[in-house]
Each structure stands twice: as C-alpha cells, then as structure tokens.
Amino acid sequence: MMVGAFGSGLVKLAGYRQNEDSFVGITGKNSVEWVVAMFACAEYNYIYTPLYSTLGNEGLQHILNQTELEVAVCQTSEEAAHLIKDFSSCLRLVIICRQDEAGKNLKSEHTSAIRVLFFEEVLGATLLSGARAGIVTNPPESLLADIAAIRPTVFTSVPRVLNRIRSEFYKKFPKSTNLQKRLQHLIDSKNTEQEKGIFSNSSFVDRIFFKKFRKAMGGRVSLIVSASAAMEPDVIRFFRAALGCPVVQVYGMTELTGGGSATPIGDCSLGSGGALMYEYHVKLKDVPEMGLFVNRNHRGEVCFRGPGCTSGYYRDHENTAKLYDEQGWLRTGDIAQWNEQGGLEIVDRCKSMFKLAQGEYIAPEKVEGVYALSNLVRVILVDGSSNVSFAVAIVWPDFLELRKSVAQMGVKQPATGSLPNITSSLGALSDEELCCNIHVRLFVLNQLNTLARQRKLKGFEMVRAKNVFLTTEVFSPENGLLTPTLKIARFKARAHFQEVVKSLYAEGELIPSGQNAV
Fold first, then answer.
1. Quick check: pTM over 0.85?
2. What letter would DSSP give residue 274?
3. For the chain, which domains are there?
4. Least buried of 274, 353, 410, 469, by fewest C-beta within 10 Å?
C-alpha cells in the first residue's frame, strides 16, 4: 500500500511524467522510506539512482548531469539543502523523509523553481482517507537486536558483518581451553555431517553450545547468503555449524545485473564464487602486465558473456569501450581461478593487488579477511610497495577488546622480555596514546601474525606484515573509507593513509626478520 501510494503521489502531486528516461535520485542511509521509494520507482517505471555521499561532490555532480535528475528523495533536510544549494542541476522536486524545522524553512524558501515536499505529503496524497500519514522508525540498538526481532529465515549479508557477529559469539564464549576444544570439535563434526547432506541442530551438545546464539539470530535462519567479497573458510564453517544451515556465497556485479555465480546449496566446499548461473559463459583472460598467464599460472581476469551482461554504461561511450575485450567478453577486473570442484574462485581485484620488491603480487582482500578474524580488529587495510620486500597494515582496533587483551596477557618488551609499565596504567591512556605506544603496536602485530600462521597463509597469499599503524579514525561510508556495502574503499583509503604508509616504511620492521614474523 505504501509503495503504491508513494508512486502514485509522485505522479499526482508532483506532476512527474513517466517515461524511460525518468530518474529519481535517493540519498541517505537504509530506511523504510528508502525501500518504499525504491520499490515505488520499480512499480511506476522510474529509474532509481542511489546518490551515495561517499561519491564526493564531483561524483554527485557527474550523476546529476548525466541523468538530468529532476526528482530526489533525501533522508534529512541537510542532505536536501546540500543538493539544492551546492550543485548545478535540473532538480525541480526534492522530497525530505524526516520532518524538522530546517526542512520547513527549506520548504518555505523554495516554492517556484524547486519544490520541496515531505515524504508523508507525497505518501498521503493518495491514501484512501486523504489524511497525511507519517512513518515512525526507531534506530535499532544493535544489529543482533534487529535480527532477533525480525526472525529471518534467509539472512543476506556481507562478510564484514558476519565476521563481527561471529566475533561477538567468541567474545562471550568461556575462555576455558577444554571448552574451546570441544566447541571446535563440534564445528568440525557438524561440517563433516553436512558434507554428507545432514543439516541438524538437535543434538544435546549442539543445544548447549549454540542454542542461545540461534535465539539471538531469531531462531529461524535456514539459509545464509553472502555477497560483495569472499568469506573466510573458518567463518563459513562456524555459521554452518552454529545455525545448522547452508551458507551460499554469491559472486556478481552491477554490470552482470546481479549474480554471475553462486555456491549451490549442499556444496560444502569453502572456495568463493561457485557454479555459474545458467545464462552465462565465463573465461579466464591473461593479464600480461601482472605476469599472469592462464596456461602457466592457472589464474586470470574473469570475463563473462551472456544475456545478463549490460550493453554499456549510461551515456559513457569511453568506459563502455573499455568494459569489453576484443572478442566481446565483459571484463570484470577480478582475478580468479577454477577450484578442484570446477567452481569459480575469486582471488582479488586487479586494481587491489600490489607487488613487493621480490616481484610477488599480493592479494590484500584475502589477507585482510584472515586478519579481520582477530577480536582486536574492527577494520584492517593491508598495503605495500614495489620498492620494499614487506607489507604493512593500518588497523582501526576494537579498543574495548584491545584494552582487555593487553591487560590480561601483558605486553612484553621485544628485547628484554620484561613487562613495561603500560598494563598498570591502561585506564589513564587515551585511545590516541594507546595507538602510539610501541609496545601495543608490537602486541597487535604479533597477534595478527600468530593468526596468519594458524590460518596457514602461504605462497601467493602470504603477507609478512612487519609494521602496523593503529588509528582512532573511524572507517565508515560517511568519511569515504568504506563503500556503502561496507567494503574498504581501497583507492580512497590508500590515498588517505599514503603518508602513514611512508612513515611505516621509514620506521622499518617492528619485527626483525626471523623474530616471530609470519
């Protein structure tokens, strides 16, 4: 009802015409209004265009110009004012989702060339009662609280969120070595059962270990679908065991109008990508500039061909020409290989990979996925230089967990092995001081490298992160360090921390070669 009312309101109240070039821009965080506007566009044949703040002013201006956008739905009055006052555009209608005084003032200022309306005015224009209908939404206290309330049967997410949920489970799980071993045995045995097609969570031991976790996840999850990046094998195995359900990884991109491959339900292999969607053909293409040749390295750039492939970018002939190779295959920009089961296994983005001085190309997303399993890490960026033989890491820590771990385990001096005075004065240290402390940095670096050894990073995937920078700066879509899908905005993040990386290399190795390095 809300979707139909909002779409009809666009036509009736806003006087917006329907044709194949009618665009509606949507900006703001995920919300009820966002979803209503999106589905209303689909129902009334409008093209909805996300206006992410992370694109920056230049990117937003490009979209406004290219689409000749006339209608925008904004979450807040601040976003609406930004669009109206800071850009040259064809806008003639701006809809604000949240009513406040600033929005009312903005509405009174613009009554001719650009009309400003509130969301409920558009929605209420076609409701049967004719009354204005506002929508009240309360921000969830936490993701898990939201999940428990919704009680989903299919849970769709991204790896970073799943990593955090798993981390919360382990934070609350008893630290007893015996219980930890029994938990791991249960995870292993349940995954072995699932390889035989047995998905169950009814055993007595299973209920002891996972009943509370399943309840926190709503108690009804029967399938997890993950997209946007590869999941770490340990995370896949955990969710399969804890929820007693399949975990499906999907590989896709906008240019494929959705998914290109996915792990079939019942396939218990741990590689990402999986089987191809039926309408696609796929090939791996040589990447000579990276020294990758399919016949020799068994890796290459993934290329797709099929009816789901886009015909090109909207009004952008230059980039459309670059999208396809000489034989008409769509180039994804991703490096992949075929696994033993014949599934497509994504390695990393071409543009994400970097080369160290010894000539080895490193796939940072894979390595970051391993390091992100640490309870100490909220977000990690691994970077390197072709002039140096080792990589470095930028870490935004979980400060509560970091303080707890330092206090419990202590931090040893690298030379003498004696405990510095830091553990007795943790409470007096600010987060900034904690990040700058050389002993804390060493502690974090050793924890990361211990985790890497346990996960057996080797060969092409190995990174010997011998220096680390701890930052208090939040990684978020708002400051551009994360994408709207919560992946690292690598190009922006590398540029942002460029001077930090240089300083880490100038400082040299915190862990000298041969001493506790991965």
1. no
2. B
3. 2-124 (3.40.50.980), 143-245 (no CATH), 249-349 (2.30.38.10), 354-507 (3.30.300.30)
4. 410
